[in-house]
Specification:
With about 120 residues, the protein is mostly beta strands. It has one helix spanning about 25-30, and strands at about 5, 10, 20-25, 35-40, 45-50, 55-60, 65-70, 75-80, 90-100, 105, 110-115. It is about 5% helix and about 50% strand. The longest helix has 4 residues, at about 25-30.
């Protein structure tokens, strides 16, 4: 059974940094594109960034220059480094595994709160 498990969320002050991690099953990691989304209270889930199986990345304008996605194929892990955090970054952050021909998978989410 495929599982995505996020970790690394928490409370951080504005301007601070956090690194989120997503552990994945080895059966999907090598061929799936991996991404991060977030959902703030009362808002729709928002795409943030993705990295293909080949390592190409793309970012939403809202996080470009502040967030960095990476993947460690040897460890079946994907990371989201978040810098210069703002209160509006407060949300539940979700890891996503996407393949053009198969179903998507989602993690359970990890809470990130940016507040002084």
């Amino acid at each position: 059974q495929v599982q995505l498990v996020e970790s690394g969320g928490g409370l951080v002050q504005p301007g601070g940094s956090l690194r989120l991690s997503c552990a994945t099953s080895g059966s999907i990691f090598s061929t799936y594109d991996m991404g991060w989304y977030r959902q703030a209270p009362g808002k729709q889930r928002e795409f943030l960034t993705a990295i293909t199986s080949g390592g190409s990345t793309n970012y939403a304008d809202s996080v470009k220059g502040r967030f960095t996605i990476s993947r460690d194929n040897a460890k079946n892990m994907v990371y989201l480094q978040m810098n210069s955090l703002k209160p509006e970054d407060t949300a539940v952050y979700y890891c996503n595994a996407h393949h053009a021909f198969f179903r998507d998978y989602w993690g359970q989410g990890t809470q990130v709160t940016v507040s002084s």
